[in-house]
Design goal:
- By secondary structure, the chain is an all-alpha fold.
- Helix content is 74%, strand content 3%.
- The protein has a single domain, classed as MetI-like (MetI-like fold).
- The protein has 13 helices and 2 strands; from the N terminus they run ααββααααααααααα.
Length: 291
């Protein structure tokens, strides 16, 4: 077979992507599953099969259970606000004109700004004594909050930052989907004297449903795997109130050198996200209207 024919083959075109996926996704996942059943010490070279001991250990670990609970609450909280806010922003910005285009750029900026810059900005804003958020609460006659420094508000504070950072991305995706909706559908709605609410729920929302299924699934996966803002803003504190799964895995594996327990936590994370994604696609996918 000629080389030119091989290069034109679709399998040859996707081969680099498959190779990268195998090297950086499949192989590390397989190694994580293997190490989760072993007692591994990369310093001394010890490597012993211990069965389900790592899983029994983490499920009796209060810190792990707290991190898992925090991650679930964080995932649902961020998704419940970032996707609707993104849709609302997209509906407002789905117009031409300099002001709208400028606003689209502004609202998308948080998504591309580094997490270190985002964390630094919000840590100043959430400062209990000099932060602008407590200043605004004071203007409204509300008591100040300690935000990141209080165990009752630290997870909420991280969720606010995550929603602020991801809403712009969701809005841009929805704007692109809105521009694909045939204008004839809205013209028919106007001829039928449909109200804006009726038009939204009977035309816009059903047409956007495949994109919304994707955004909800992607947002849940991203939120459950959050690491950056925890590392830079709270380090899981105070008293593990903002500790999340990925940060627990990082501390367990890289700081405490308990590789087997960390890999067991990583396997639990992968399985949980797989189940959540499958359930979401099964339930929401049935209601999606694919053209």
């Amino acid at each position: 077979m000629k080389i030119s024919a091989v290069l034109r083959s679709p399998y040859a075109l996707i081969l680099p992507a498959i190779a990268l996926c195998l090297i950086f996704s499949v192989a590390p996942t397989a190694m994580s599953v293997r190490d989760s059943f072993r007692s591994v010490d990369y310093v001394s070279g010890a490597d012993k099969f211990i069965g389900l001991a790592n899983y029994r250990s983490i499920f009796t670990d209060d810190v792990f259970l707290r991190a898992f609970k925090n991650s679930v609450l964080f995932m649902f909280g961020v998704t419940a606000f970032s996707v609707p806010f993104g849709v609302a922003a997209a509906l407002f910005l789905d117009k031409n004109g300099f002001i709208r285009n400028f606003t689209q750029s502004v609202i998308f900026t948080p998504h591309i700004v580094s997490f270190i810059a985002v964390a630094t900005l919000w840590m100043f804003m959430m400062d209990p004594r000099y932060g602008i958020l407590n200043y605004i609460l004071g203007l409204l006659g509300l008591p100040p909050l300690r935000w990141l420094m209080d165990s009752s508000t630290s997870l909420l504070s991280l969720a606010i930052v995550a929603v602020w950072k991801t809403t712009g991305f969701n809005a841009l995706i929805v704007i692109a989907a809105l521009q694909k909706i045939p204008a004839e559908l809205y013209e028919s709605a106007r001829l039928d004297r449909s109200t804006p609410a009726r038009t939204f729920f009977h035309i816009t929302l059903p047409t956007l449903s495949p994109i919304l299924v994707f955004l909800v699934t992607a947002s849940m996966i991203s939120a459950f795997g959050t690491f950056d803002i925890v590392k830079f803003m709270t380090e899981g504190g105070p008293r593990n109130s903002s500790n999340l799964m990925v940060y627990w895995i990082y501390r367990t594996g890289f700081l405490h050198f308990q590789i087997g327990r960390a890999m067991a936590g990583a396997v639990i994370l992968i399985l949980f996200l797989a189940v959540v994604s499958a359930v979401n696609l099964a339930l929401a996918g049935r209601r999606a209207h694919y053209q």
